[in-house]
């Protein structure tokens, strides 16, 4: 006997998969990310070989560099785990963050290409083994403008729906941004710019997924 009330996540995914527009957008988004990730090592290895501008950062000059990799990674992967759970529970959240993150990655490729920067003085390597796997054999330090770590956590804040989830991810995004400056992984401008670019990509993604998500909302649970 089917349970009454709010449908289970299995039922929600069944309904979502029955929608042609949802299937098309889901498969296109996944294909785009796979292609993009396959090209990442080539891109990041190439930008690491170029020379850029060394910024005189007033904020970083007043913060002694310290290795705070562990708390940064704990916050990032805790928010990622929360997002994964919510994506499993809600296909609308999954499609929204899929396209938002795809556009976010493209925008970072563009901004990093257009704004060549030298690593900040005193930079301490952020030992993110999973992220580094997409960068290739050489450790990357010139993927600066804008901060991908800050943007990723802030994007989760935008895509989540529960109030407690949003408060947790927003606080995590702020702490991650501050800790990245403490470790001198990014310039201040990289961190400040990240939420603005992220929000713009999120709004564009919402326009792309408007039809499939509208069809889901119109479907009976």
Largest sheet: none
Q: In terms of structural class, how would the helical and strand content be classed? A: mainly alpha
> Count of helical segments?
9
* Radius of gyration over C-alpha positions, nearest whole angstrom: 19 Å
Tell me the span between the first and last alpha carbons.
Answer: 15 Å
Q: Roughly what percent helix?
A: 55-70%
The total strand number stands at: 0
* Total domain count: 1
Strand content bin = under 5%
Runs in which pLDDT lies below 50 for 5 or more consecutive residues are 1-5
- H and E string: HHHHHHHHH
Task: Indicate the mean pLDDT.
Answer: 91
Q: Which shape, going by the Cα principal axes?
A: globular
Throw out a few tags for this protein:
221 residues; mainly alpha; 9 helices; disordered N terminus
Describe the structure in your own words.
The chain is an all-alpha fold and 221 residues long. It has helices at residues 9-17, 20-48, 69-89, 91-114, 129-132, 148-159, 163-182, 188-208, 210-218. It has one domain (9-218). Helix 2 packs parallel to helix 4 and helix 2 runs antiparallel to helix 9. Mean pLDDT is 91; it is low at 1-5.
């Amino acid at each position: 006997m089917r349970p009454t009330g709010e449908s289970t996540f299995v039922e929600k995914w069944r309904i979502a998969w029955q929608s042609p527009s949802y299937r098309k957008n889901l498969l296109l988004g996944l294909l785009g990310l796979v292609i993009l990730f396959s090209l990442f090592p080539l891109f990041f290895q190439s930008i690491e070989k170029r020379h850029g501008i060394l910024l005189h950062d007033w904020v970083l000059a007043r913060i002694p560099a310290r290795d705070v990799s562990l708390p940064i990674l704990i916050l990032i992967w805790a928010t990622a785990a929360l997002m994964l759970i919510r994506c499993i529970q809600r296909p609308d959240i999954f499609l929204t963050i899929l396209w938002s993150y795809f556009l976010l990655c493209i925008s970072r490729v563009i901004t990093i290409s257009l704004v060549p920067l030298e690593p900040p003085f005193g930079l301490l390597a952020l030992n993110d083994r999973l992220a580094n796997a997409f960068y290739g054999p050489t450790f990357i330090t010139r993927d600066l403008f804008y901060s991908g770590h800050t943007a990723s956590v802030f994007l989760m804040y935008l895509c989540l729906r529960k109030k407690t989830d949003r408060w947790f991810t927003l606080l995590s995004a702020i702490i991650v941004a501050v800790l990245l400056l403490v470790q001198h992984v990014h310039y201040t401008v990289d961190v400040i710019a990240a939420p603005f670019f992220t929000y713009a990509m999120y709004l564009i993604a919402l326009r792309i997924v408007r039809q499939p998500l509208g069809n889901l909302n119109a479907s009976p649970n």
